[in-house]
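In full, the data:

***
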Amino acid sequence: MAGVIYALNGTPLHEGHSGWRTLRDGTQTQGGITNSLVKVPSPGRPGYRPAPSTYTEQIMVLVVRTPRDRLEELLALCDAATVISRVGDSTKEAAIEIASAIPSGSAVYDAVFDVTITVVIYEGAWRDVDAVTVGPTSVTTPTQAFTMLDDIGAPVFDMDVFIRGVFDEFTLTDSGGSWLKTTREFTPQASDRGLLYVGATKKAFLAMESNPWVPVSDASQYIDVSANGGFRLTPELVSGNPANRRVALSLVTLAQTSTTLRVRAKRRYRMN
């Protein structure tokens, strides 16, 4: 099989030591886009009104030929696999579950087996291996625009956001219209403190400038997020060009004293 070679938990599925070969026939790695649509009918009106949708999990099928004496080794790898990656690209990976790994044939004297491995990418996207940290960027005006995460391909929900200093209240809005905002005035005891929003849990914490991603105490009572999945980082096409993608944020604050914004996220990419 020419081209891309895939690895489970870092072990290539096409290499000489094990004798494994990923076959062209039966292998399907192009996921594309599959959305779960929410349709809201309106009585007396044609069609439906679209509601916010989400993209679904993606399926990859890998057919790997293995010598008989390496079959158990391959099945053990599949049983333990939690991550798929592409050999030669150390920047991206995807969290997975193995739905099945089925050897073909049952003849006693078969020297090789073709194993069909069905891989479920349950988050539906490739992810950065390492998080990208943007900032700290000084906030100096009541309404300030930020752009970040070039080349992003799919929305990110599990980002971390840290807003430091005296800002009174804030509203942070992303490219797709989702928002993160305070529900009351926030007055830190010192300018090196701020609010940390953890997108993975939708909770907020008091945190320190010296260690912004480490929660100090719960502060979820200060924070609210938009409905339909909460705050996210949505890709936008710059000037309508699909080859030029990024996230755009707008931050509104009522005060700007020693105020900075940081965002930490692992970009998502469509399955291709």
In short: Residues 178 and 227 are 8 Å apart (CA to CA). The first strand starts at residue 6 and ends at 8. The chain has two domains: 6-124, 130-269.
